[in-house]
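Protein modeling request. Please complete all fields; requests missing the sequence field cannot be processed.
Requester role: graduate student
Desired output: 3D structure, C-alpha cell encoding
Chains: 1
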Amino acid sequence: MLNELLDVERGARQAGIVIAKRDSDVKDVGRKPTLMVRLDSNGQVADVDPVPVSLLLWTFGKGNKQRFPFVQPNIPLMYVQSAGMQLKLESLRLLRAEKRRSAFIELCRDAAFNETKLKGWPGVRDKNGNWSQDPHDYLNGLRKRRDQMLGLRGTDGESVLATIGRFLMACDKTGGGVSLLRQVACKFVDTIECSAGDDWQRVGEPLLFFGRGALFFDVPSQEFSRLASDPRQVAAISHVLKMADKTDGSNGRCALSGEDGVRLVKDTFPELVIPVIGKTILFSRFSAIPSNARYGHFGAKSFSAGETIVESLTGALRSLTIPEREGLTWRSIPGEAPKQSDLLLAFVRQAMDVPVAALLAEKREDFSEEEGDTVSSQAGSVAAFEGRTKRLVEAVKTSVSVDWRSTPVSLAILRKVDPANRKVIYAGAPSIGDIYDAAITWSAGERNVPDGFRLWSLHRGEIDPRPAKPSHVAPLGVIKFSKQIFLRNGKRPPGKKKEQMGLPAAETLKLFLDGAKVKGRSPRHRAERVLRLVLARRTMLIAEFVHAQRRGWDLSRVYDSYEALRTTTILGLLLYKLNRNKEAYMNDTAFRLGQLLAAADVVHAGYCADVRGGATPPSLLGNQFFVMAQTAPVKALSALARRWKPYDGWAKKNSNYSRPNKFRNDQGKMKRRSEFKADSERAEFDKGVAIFKAIWQSRRVADIAAELTGKLPAVCDDMFRAELLLGYMAGLPRHQKENVDSLTQNTIEEE
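Delivered output (751 residues):
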C-alpha cells in the first residue's frame, strides 16, 4: 500500500495540493455520535450541543490511550431502573418523529445516573467494561501532554491548553470525573427539553443509554479567537509537539525514498479516518497474527520508512479525501463482493479541480424501483456523459499549457480487506488523452443499440406506459451491474435482485481503457468474459420482461424495466468492443431470428385477443422457441414453421381489420389509452391494438423466415446469443406503407 500511495502523493504534490503534515499522535475522529461539552474557567459544564455529522474532529493520544479532547466513556451515562422502562427503551426504535422524541425525553427524566459503573472515570475502558488504563495514569499523561504543548500560549491554539487545564481542574475536584459526567448528563436533559432538531436524539440515545457515544471537550464560543475543535488547530498542535519531541529516534535508510540517514518512524505508522473505508493505519504488522512471526519484527520496526515522507503520504491521502472533494478526487464505488464498497482516488495531476472521479463513477449509479421516475431521468444520460467528458477535456486544456493529452491521471482504489487491514487493489496513471478516448469509445458503444430501440416503462403517477431509451452505465458502475442476479427471472415478488461475486475494479477499468475495435488477444478475451457473464445473469430477465409486455402491459409491471434498459446498453457496448456495429449485426442472422421470434409473439398475442377473448397462454409462440434458438437455431426455426400455419391463416383472414370508430376523437384521430376511464374500455382498446399489430407484423414473418433459411449456424457463440437477445427485445421496426388510411397511420405512430 505504501508504494502505491507514494505515487498518489507525488501526483497530489504535482497538482498543487497543500499537504498538511501532522504529528503521528494527532489523529482523526470517526463519525461516532458525539456531544460537544464546553467547560468554563472553573471547570464546570457551561453548555452542551450535538456535533454535526459534517464536522471533522481531531484528537491526540498514544495508540488508543490518553485520547483527548475526544473521549469515549464506552459505558452508558444513564440506566433504567425497571422492566417497564427497559421495555420503553427497546421500543424506542419503533417510534417515529415527535412520538420518539417525547418518549426519549421521558426516559431521560426518569432514568438514573449510572454512577456505579462509571466510578473511576476518566480512564480508558475496553469493550468489556474493564479498565485498560488507570484513571490516575490517564490524568498524569494528560498533564505531560499539556506541558509538551506550552508553545501554544499566546497563539490561536491557546484554547487547546485551556480545555486541557479545565478538564484536569474538574477531575481534581470532589467527585472527580464522575461528577463531571453527572453535570454533562444533567445539562443534556435540561437542554433537550427546550431544543428542537433530530441531532439531539441522534447523539443522546447512544451516549446516554447504549454506551456507544462520545464526548468532545472544548471552551465556550466567545472566550478565545479559535475553538479547540477547529480543524486548523491540528497544524499548530503538530508543530509544537514536533518541537517538544527531544527523543533522538532511530536513523537509517528509508525503504520508500532510498535516502540514507533519515529519521525513521519510531513506534507506529500514522492513523487517519478516510471516507468509505474508515480508520486506516498506513502500515501495521500485528504480533498476534501467526503469519507475521516469520519476519521477527512487528509494527514500524518491520518496515523502515522516513517520518517525513510517511507524514506526507498521510497528509496527501487526507487532503484528497475531504468531503468537499467528493466527485473531484474521490468517490465511493462498489466492490466485486456483495455489500462491499471501495474508495476510488482519481485526479488529473495538473488540473486538480477537474471532476474525473465523477466521470468514472456516478454518484447515484444504482437506483431502486421505488426511487421515483428513474427511467425518465436517465433518458438522456448517454448524451450527458458525452457532455461531461468534453467539459472535462476543455478544463484540462485550460489548466495545462503543454500537450494536454499526455497529462497523467492518478488512479488508485483502496479497500477495507478486514477490520485491521487496508489494501490498494488497483493503481495506475493513464493519460488524460487515454481517458478521453476511452470515454468517447464508451459512449459510442452505449449507442450501439438497435435504431429506434425503446422499452415501454411505466412512470410513477401515470396510467399509460411510455417508451424509454437505454440509459448510461458509468464505467465503474459495471461492477455493481455484474454482481446482480434475479430470482425467478426478476419477477417480483419474490424475485428480487441478489448479489454474487462480480467483476473486480481492475478488470472493469481495463475494459473501459481498452478502447474500441480491440485487436489484442487479452482485450478481446476480456470483452468476451464480460459478455458471457452478462448473458448468464440477465438473459432470462430480458426475455421474460419483453415476453410479458407482449402478453399484456399489466403482466410486465412486476419486472425491472430500468435494469432491462441498462442490460441493453451493456450488450451494445460489448458488441461494439468486439467489432460488431449495429449496422452489421442488425442485418445478420442472429438479430433477424430474434426479430422473427418477437413477431411470432405479437401475432400469437393478437390471435388470442381475437379468438380467445384476450386469454393468453403462459408462453407465446416465439417465446416457446427462444431458449432452443440460443443453442440450436435451425431446429428452432423448423419447429416454429410447423406451428405457424393456423396463426398465419387467421391473420390473412382478418387482413382488412380496422379498429372501432369509438376509439377516434372528434378530429378523427385515435384516442390515447389514458383517455378511457373504465377498465373495460381500456381492455377493449388493448385488444384492438394487439390485433392490429399482429396483422401487419404477420405479413413480414414469411419474408424473414425465407431470408434465414440455410444461413443459420450449427454452433452458436456468445455474440450470436447477444444479438439474438437484442433482436428479440427490439422486435420488428415501425414502418408505414405508402397507401394506408389515416386510422392505420395514426395507430402506427401511437404504437
